[in-house]
Design brief:
The protein has three helices and five strands, in the order H-H-E-E-E-E-E-H. The protein has helices at 3-14, 18-26, 86-91, and strands at 27-33, 38-43, 48-54, 64-72, 75-84. Strands 1-2-3-4-5 form a five-stranded antiparallel β-sheet. It is globular, with a radius of gyration of 13 Å. The N and C termini lie close together (10 Å).
Amino acid sequence: MTREQELRRALDLATRDTLISHVIDECCELDFDADEGVFKGLFTDGSGRLEIGLGDPAPPFSGRALWVRLEGSGLPADLFTVTLSQRELVAGGIA
């Protein structure tokens, strides 16, 4: 599985989180940056941009964090994460 496919599946799993779901709804388009291994996008109203990536496995829990970095005009950069459990990763075909 490519890094893009892995990240896309993790993002599908993470949309159960209402904040991530809302952020993605507000983004006009997400494009995969192969050099950095992250999705990048701009908000539909032009107020900012975001990056979404998937962290490395985190022992001892073997889960992974999907992180979202938001930057907007006049707003400081903000970073938040959603932890995906090993069970969710296996069910999603990622682990």
